[in-house]
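=== Per-residue structure ===
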Amino acid sequence: MQADEDTVRDVIHRFNEVELSCLNPQWAGGRPGLLRPDDEDFVVQTATARPTQLGKPFTRWSIRKLVDHLRRNISRPVWIGRETLRCLLARRDISFQRTKTWKQSPGPDFDAKLDRSEYAINMRPHHTFAFDEFGPPEHPADRGLLLGRTGTHTDRYLAHPALGGEAVQAAA
């Protein structure tokens, strides 16, 4: 094997410094990322917020809606592609989750009650259990999508004999 003497010396010195890990230099290719860590935190904060709290007319984010919102945000625009956003959310343990039902109320206290319910479910998960005042649904609603932390369950389920023991969401 032919190698320049300087290269051999460099490899020996590097081996003496970091041992066998010098044989795997782990070069990084490609262009550096354009998002700063504070931009990533802002994206995660936006993705985990309800769209209605940010003035959007829909209840849950999709990747396309979130990218569009981030780009058109007047106070802090963030230019991010759909695939980069998907990878960022996966890296931060945020994934799309299925919701069993979604109920929207025209009541003036709906947002405050929803905030209290989310606080109870997320901050006190072992102390929270609530039933829907109308009982289990006769016809299960279509499933929707929402963004949430991977490995956490924001839905509370219970088995009801009227549905043959299937899991039914209990409203919180």
